């Protein structure tokens, strides 16, 4: 499924950047298929592939409107096509929303890119005190990922629907020592996203959800976007499925409460809203020119693992090529709908790609048996909830560990 997903995102991004998507002609004068036909074919191939998602949704925005390209249905048994306003859990695209909120506060002078954790987020380990907002946004902080610890996994499994208050999520990073010198390398950490949201709260004296609504959702007119804490998803919705189980795909839409990932992965949105968001965010509707220019800078850092140097985007949704700015998300909970967003640097074109099945390794591969503390769950670990879902080599049914291992 990896190749098909990449093909969809590539074709959709080309269309958003100005490819000839609005024509129904099957080919150009040279006989080459037009972007629209290639996009539809890629969507169909992914949907019809073994263990493919029940729905694939691509929303493309150019000018004032949004066009929708779909395959499948929003929920198994439904008799309609997916719609632009169908809500879904958007997983780690949530980090782009927290980035937009924080940078809006930077633009207004309420925060600085050099504001430190120790200055704003009270009660955090002293080892984190010198880490800056800039480093949190770029995932170069060195702060360990709370969601990769045994303590977090055990607590999560004990009650999937009852998350702790947001600040308590960071208490699961039981070893507060930094993994590396801040700014020296890149390593994704869900802790960074939580701290960004807590810094927004400290700078405003308001709940992050309220700051997000005032600074991002309302200015961009995102009426189908929210940050809930519970497991329920309001209808109409794109349901998320596990397609690796034996038999029919398993609906895992409400398997885990959104509060377990909060600002790092708990957002709910819709295809049309995602397009409006990424166009407005990348195009500078929420931030001033100085902050926007800083957003597009990239830092040369060592990757994890440090096999070779690479250019890592400095911010969520920052520029990855001269033509586009993209945010590629991994699922933050097993109930999320993997989503990918991209926009042209001027915000005139945008795209959101969503699939309603978890991104997993090939069926038949087995769990490694452990998840390192730097892993971003569940993309580096195994999940099976309900009908034998596994996490880090442990199988549990209906939230109860039952031992053994299962295929990825």
From TrEMBL:
EC number: 3.1.1.103
Residue span(s) of domain Beta-lactamase-related: 52-323
Domain of life: Bacteria
Gene3D superfamilies in the record: DD-peptidase/beta-lactamase superfamily (3.40.710.10)
Stretches assigned to coiled coil: none
Record key words, sorted: Hydrolase
One Pfam family this sequence matches: Beta-lactamase
Enzyme category, top tier: hydrolase
GO MF annotation, one: hydrolase activity
Region (Disordered): 297-349
Keyword Transit peptide: no
Regions of compositional bias (Low complexity) in chain numbering: 299-345
Protein name: Serine hydrolase domain-containing protein
Organism the protein comes from: Amycolatopsis carbonis
Lineage: Bacteria, Bacillati, Actinomycetota, Actinomycetes, Pseudonocardiales
């Amino acid at each position: 499924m990896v190749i098909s997903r990449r093909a969809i995102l590539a074709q959709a991004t080309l269309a958003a950047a100005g490819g000839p998507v609005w024509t129904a002609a099957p080919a150009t004068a040279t006989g080459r298929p037009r972007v629209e036909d290639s996009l539809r074919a890629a969507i169909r191939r992914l949907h019809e592939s073994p263990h493919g998602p029940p729905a694939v949704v691509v929303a493309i925005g150019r000018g004032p409107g949004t066009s929708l390209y779909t395959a499948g249905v929003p929920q198994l048994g439904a008799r309609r096509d997916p719609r632009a306003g169908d809500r879904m859990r958007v997983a780690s695209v949530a980090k782009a929303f927290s980035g937009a909120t924080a940078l809006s506060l930077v633009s207004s002078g309420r925060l600085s890119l050099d504001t430190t954790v120790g200055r704003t987020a009270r009660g955090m380990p002293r080892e984190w005190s010198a880490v800056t907002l800039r480093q949190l946004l770029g995932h170069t902080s060195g702060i360990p990922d709370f969601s990769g610890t045994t303590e977090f996994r055990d607590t999560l499994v004990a009650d999937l629907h009852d998350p702790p208050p947001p600040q308590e999520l960071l208490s699961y990073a039981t070893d507060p020592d930094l993994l590396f010198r801040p700014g020296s390398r890149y390593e994704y950490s869900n802790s960074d996203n939580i701290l960004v949201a807590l810094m927004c709260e400290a700078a405003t004296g308001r709940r992050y959800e309220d700051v997000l609504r005032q600074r991002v959702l309302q200015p961009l007119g995102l009426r189908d976007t929210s940050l809930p804490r519970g497991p329920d998803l309001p209808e109409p919705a794109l349901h998320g499925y596990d397609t690796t189980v034996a038999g029919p795909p398993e609906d895992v839409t409400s398997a885990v409460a959104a509060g377990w990932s909060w600002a790092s992965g708990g957002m709910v949105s819709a295809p049309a809203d995602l397009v409006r968001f990424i166009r407005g965010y990348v195009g500078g509707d929420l931030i001033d020119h100085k902050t926007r220019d800083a957003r597009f800078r990239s830092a040369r850092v060592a990757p994890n693992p440090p096999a070779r140097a690479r250019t890592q985007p400095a911010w969520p949704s920052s520029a990855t090529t001269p033509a586009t700015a993209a945010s590629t998300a991994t699922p933050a909970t097993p109930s999320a709908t993997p989503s990918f967003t991209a926009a042209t640097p001027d915000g005139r074109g945008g795209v959101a790609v969503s699939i309603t099945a978890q991104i997993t390794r090939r069926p038949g591969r087995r769990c490694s048996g452990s998840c390192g503390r730097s892993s971003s769950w569940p993309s580096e670990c195994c999940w099976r909830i309900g009908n034998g879902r596994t996490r880090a080599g442990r199988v549990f049914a209906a939230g109860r560990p039952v031992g053994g291992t299962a295929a990825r």
